[in-house]
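ok trying this again, last paste got cut off
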Amino acid sequence: MEEKRKERKIKRIAVSSKRQMSIPKEFFEALDIEEEIMIENVDNKKLVITPYREPLEDVSEEILEQLIAEGFQGERLIEEFKYRKSSMHVTPNDKKTESEEEGPLMPELFPEET
């Protein structure tokens, strides 16, 4: 089966002497960034910026059940739990209820097995 390649746009931007940078307008608008973002340092090799939204609800138990089912244990379980929990956010398009959509609001946290 052929996987669909994710769309990527890359821009080079300047960082000021005060470590400040400006998010390009097209990225800012496409991600519907409001007042805050989340920034993640991945293996000291890249930064991942995502819009911050208030979590829908506490789904810690469901995340842990899924991680255990996927075989995570020990420190790796804790790391993956923190990652998935921090990845939870609401965008304007997510404000529908599950009954209005097909499937869970955040399927990327609970990937379907194929």
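PB: full thing came through this time. The chain has three helices and two strands.
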